[in-house]
């Protein structure tokens, strides 16, 4: 069983237009509307792969009501924690031959100690009841408390079996603190190049620079997968480094590919696969999503076709 947590979900509007101009009137023919947020996208991708996760999301306001309606067509199992503020919107525009523009609201703020405790209690109760093998904490949280995720992961480590795998798919200060300033670490992280730069406190521009850094400065997390866009990824799994080349595809929409990458890794973990197969499923799932207009779409038949196209080169 898998438990996914999304503390800042959104209603996503996706537009696909050949031409888009700033400071001008742009008329779009239609939009694709989806319930989203990193954990929701991950849950959807897992559904396509054959795992129906329990997916917790904070929702509020009229947008939250609409968000719940959108999820009625999904096959995973949503659980909602109601808040007072409005669930956020996010707009993605794919235009001008593959240019990707996003407009993302910050979302409702988690500030009160009471709400913080309610979130923690809800997650612990769900985890105690469902006994998940994997818990994935996905996406940002709009909070003034940079140690929110540190405290949550510490609580999960104290309350749950040591065999429970914790995935941390968030970035910026939250990721930096949980990796560098916490006794309780996650088992899996998946930063992209920009997020990796923030994590290590220095700018890296490409896959080779990521690899060069990790050779001498290993990240203290058992499974670290640094996604490098079209260049593929660098994986540091259980002290070993791998140079990963992704399949070559025609890009449709990259939104949600990182979330689908996490879903692919979770799928492989759930099935007790080897480190190499975890990498293959992660990269193939993220690639499959990039071939779709929607977000969090990792069709199992497409993923299966892409698995052998993922090239993995052990470094050490």
From TrEMBL:
<feature type="domain" description="Carbohydrate kinase PfkB">
    <location>
        <begin position="12"/>
        <end position="297"/>
    </location>
</feature>
<dbReference type="Pfam" id="PF00294">
    <property type="entry name" value="PfkB"/>
</dbReference>
<comment type="pathway">
    <text>Carbohydrate metabolism; D-tagatose 6-phosphate degradation; D-glyceraldehyde 3-phosphate and glycerone phosphate from D-tagatose 6-phosphate: step 1/2.</text>
</comment>
<keyword id="KW-0423">Lactose metabolism</keyword>
<dbReference type="GO" id="GO:0005988">
    <property type="term" value="P:lactose metabolic process"/>
</dbReference>
<comment type="similarity">
    <text>Belongs to the carbohydrate kinase PfkB family. LacC subfamily.</text>
</comment>
<dbReference type="GO" id="GO:0005829">
    <property type="term" value="C:cytosol"/>
</dbReference>
<dbReference type="InterPro" id="IPR011611">
    <property type="entry name" value="PfkB_dom"/>
</dbReference>
<keyword id="KW-0808">Transferase</keyword>
<comment type="similarity">
    <text>Belongs to the carbohydrate kinase pfkB family.</text>
</comment>
<keyword id="KW-0418">Kinase</keyword>
<dbReference type="GO" id="GO:0005524">
    <property type="term" value="F:ATP binding"/>
</dbReference>
<dbReference type="InterPro" id="IPR017583">
    <property type="entry name" value="Tagatose/fructose_Pkinase"/>
</dbReference>
<dbReference type="GO" id="GO:2001059">
    <property type="term" value="P:D-tagatose 6-phosphate catabolic process"/>
</dbReference>
<protein>
    <recommendedName>
        <fullName>Tagatose-6-phosphate kinase</fullName>
        <ecNumber>2.7.1.144</ecNumber>
    </recommendedName>
</protein>
<keyword id="KW-0547">Nucleotide-binding</keyword>
<keyword id="KW-0067">ATP-binding</keyword>
<dbReference type="GO" id="GO:0009024">
    <property type="term" value="F:tagatose-6-phosphate kinase activity"/>
</dbReference>
<dbReference type="InterPro" id="IPR029056">
    <property type="entry name" value="Ribokinase-like"/>
</dbReference>
<dbReference type="GO" id="GO:0008443">
    <property type="term" value="F:phosphofructokinase activity"/>
</dbReference>
<dbReference type="InterPro" id="IPR002173">
    <property type="entry name" value="Carboh/pur_kinase_PfkB_CS"/>
</dbReference>
């Amino acid at each position: 069983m898998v438990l996914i947590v999304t503390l800042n979900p959104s209603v996503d509007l996706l537009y696909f237009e050949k031409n888009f101009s700033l400071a001008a009137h742009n008329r779009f023919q239609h939009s694709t509307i989806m319930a989203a947020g990193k954990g929701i996208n991950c849950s959807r991708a897992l559904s396509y792969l054959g795992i129906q996760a329990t997916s917790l999301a904070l929702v509020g306001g009229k947008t939250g009501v609409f968000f719940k309606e959108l999820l009625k067509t999904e096959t995973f199992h949503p659980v909602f924690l109601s808040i007072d503020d409005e669930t956020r919107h996010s707009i993605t525009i794919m235009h001008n031959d593959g240019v990707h523009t996003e407009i993302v609201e910050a979302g409702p703020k988690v500030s009160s100690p009471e709400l913080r405790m309610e979130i923690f209690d809800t997650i612990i109760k769900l985890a105690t009841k469902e006994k998940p093998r994997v818990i994935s904490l996905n996406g940002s949280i709009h909070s003034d408390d940079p140690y929110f995720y540190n405290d949550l992961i510490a609580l999960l480590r104290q309350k749950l079996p040591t065999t429970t795998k914790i995935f941390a798919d968030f970035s910026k200060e939250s990721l930096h603190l949980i990796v560098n300033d916490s006794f309780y670490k996650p088992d899996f992280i998946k930063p992209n190049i920009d997020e990796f730069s923030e994590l290590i406190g220095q700018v890296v521009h490409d896959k080779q620079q990521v690899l060069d850094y990790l050779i001498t400065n290993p990240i203290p997390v058992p499974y670290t997968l640094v996604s490098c866009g079209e260049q593929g990824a660098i994986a540091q799994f259980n002290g070993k480094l791998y140079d990963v080349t992704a399949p070559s595809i025609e890009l449709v929409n990259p939104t949600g590919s990182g979330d689908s990458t996490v879903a692919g890794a979770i799928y492989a973990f759930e099935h007790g696969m080897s480190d190499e197969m975890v990498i293959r499923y992660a990269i193939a799932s993220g690639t499959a999503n990039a071939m779709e207009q929607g977000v969090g779409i990792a069709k199992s038949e497409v993923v299966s076709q892409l698995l052998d196209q993922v090239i993995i080169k052990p470094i050490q």
